[in-house]
Amino acid sequence: MNPYEKKRRWKFFLLFFAILIGIASVFYTDSFVKKMEREEADQFHLWVRIQERSMLLYDNDDFRTIVETVRKNTKTPVIMVDSAGSISSFFGLDSTKTNYPTDSKLTYDSLYFVHQLAKMKAQHYPDEMNIIGRKFKAYYRDSFILTQLRYFPYIQMGVIFLFLLTAYAAFSSSRRAEQDHVWVGLAKETAHQLGTPISSLMAWTELMKSKFDAEDDPLIAEMENDIKRLEIITDRFSKIGSKPILEDHTVYIVISNFISYFKVRTSDKVKFSITGDEQVRAMLNVPLFDWVIENLLKNAANAIENEGSISVNIIENLAKEQVFIDVTDTGKGIPRSKFDAVFQPGYTTRKRGWGLGLSLTKRIVENYHSGEIFVKESEIGKGTTFRIILKSSLTYEPTTA
């Protein structure tokens, strides 16, 4: 299993564990809330029964003490209505809305009673009351503490989620910065280490040409091409971490030149072709952009097990002033679920692969050329198409009749 798969599995495991904790917290709080609901219901029913007896036994000092004690300890808001539906009494409501002075007299907020009664009817069924031959209905709603407790686990989960999201973003940013630092350091050190053997190889080829009179020898010429290629690679590595200089180039010519070099060093069973607009231009850093094309062509060639073809099609999007570069192979294809994963560092399907080529390609296209790269389409057993989107260096003005 490659490192990316391991990391993704750990993410899924931690996410599942966090969801499990959240669900357990919700269920535990819900059971506690239901217990409090039953206790408040029992308290309400007790209050109703005492209210029924209070008019008959209120002269009894002991019973009056019990009534007052129950009223003081009842936290549940209650409204009593008569048989006509009119509010006859209430208990536990906001005193600033039910009884407040205006112009030297006491008044109340009638809409407040209407809203409170509607809430009570929506939450619980009423209790029937019979007080000295008159019928009443008593309604109640959940206490403020019970309401808070009911929403507490969701608020708690929201706060935890925001904390985890913030922490994840912070750690990801820190890790990405650290990875970038490692990338830059490794690239520049590689460029430095390649400098000496390249200089030595250049000297040896010059010595061979003079000693064996091999100025026109094709093998020496190919060796020089490879040395030049090493110089280009060294230049690529040295540019990592620095802002590259982008210059105006014809995309077709840049890609065609690289394919001419690359196909000589690939199996004869793989056929190359380049089609599309030959005039479209874009701002490129050629050594870095060649690296992009090289990685895509290498992956395409590796995906072709026997015979096959690799084609590059250049398309101009006049409306958006963009250049589309489609690299298509007839290889084994990529599962749709892996379209994003192929660009992750460490992802590879080869036993000896490092899984860094497409990751580096994405960095070069997006960070250095302000473009995009993605898997446009792929089908198992038939092939894959990668699309690069670059900003055209030509500005188009619509023609007017």
UniProtKB/TrEMBL annotation:
It comes from Pedobacter punctiformis. Pfam families: HATPase_c. Residues 189-394 form the Histidine kinase domain. The keyword Zinc-finger does not apply. Its EC number is 2.7.13.3. SMART domains: HATPase_c. The lineage of its organism: Bacteria, Pseudomonadati, Bacteroidota, Sphingobacteriia, Sphingobacteriales. CDD domains: HisKA (cd00082). This is histidine kinase. The chain crosses the membrane at residues 12-29, 151-171. It comes from the Bacteria. Keywords: ATP-binding, Kinase, Membrane, Nucleotide-binding, Phosphoprotein, Transferase, Transmembrane, Transmembrane helix, Two-component regulatory system. It catalyses: ATP + protein L-histidine = ADP + protein N-phospho-L-histidine. GO terms for molecular function: kinase activity.
